[in-house]
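It is worth pausing here to work through a concrete case rather than discussing structure prediction in the abstract. The textbook approach is simple: state the sequence, then state the predicted structure, then interpret. We follow exactly that order.
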Amino acid sequence: MKVLIAEDDPLHRSYLHESVRAALPECDEVIEVPDGRAAETRARETPAAHIVMDLQMQPRNGIEAARTIWRERPGTRILFWSNYADEAYVRGVSRIVPQGAAYGYVLKSASEERLRLALRSIFVENQCVIDREVRGTQAMSFGHAGGFSDSEYEILIDIALGLTDRAIAARRGLSLRSVQNRLQQIYDKLEVHQDAGEAQFNLRARGLDSDPAQTPELRRAGTRRGRIARLDRHAALGRRQRR
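Step two, the predicted structure:
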């Protein structure tokens, strides 16, 4: 058995390596890569490998990498290991899973015992393992009539990555006007508004700046912490809207 670990944090990679060795004594090789793009390459080179995948990575995140890997090899078993159970991530994973695939979604806050059990259940017993909190988010996301469409979730992820409107348009193959219309729909659903007198981030001008340093909001989005904070804030607003 071979296991491929895709995780950008060296300490987390080391922890996963030790967990794989402890949970899977039959594993004869553990391969480590720091991002989704490298994961795609190594998965092609080692098609029999099972994969542990972080979600928030640059320059290619775990969802994009898993989509490519599953498109090429639908039978690949993937365990997503993430800090987040927000809708953007949960729905992003759920919509790319091939029918009948064995996969898992375990939070990094889970115990070591829980992680090891998930590794054996998915990679040895061919079962699906989804954390309870993630299942709750799945039910809320897909059961809510007024939720986001798949295209809106894709753009919401792009916003969290700090991309400009023009960058989103190029990335998604859309016109600039189409991106701006979808952004407005997202802001409306999240009830994100700004009074004219507030000296804050301008929603309409956000994506037109070519220099991310021109606004404090985009400077924050340029760091990993800023991207995560913005995505969490959008998800939290969406949850309050549903209540």
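Step three, interpretation. The radius of gyration is 19 Å. The mean pLDDT is 79.
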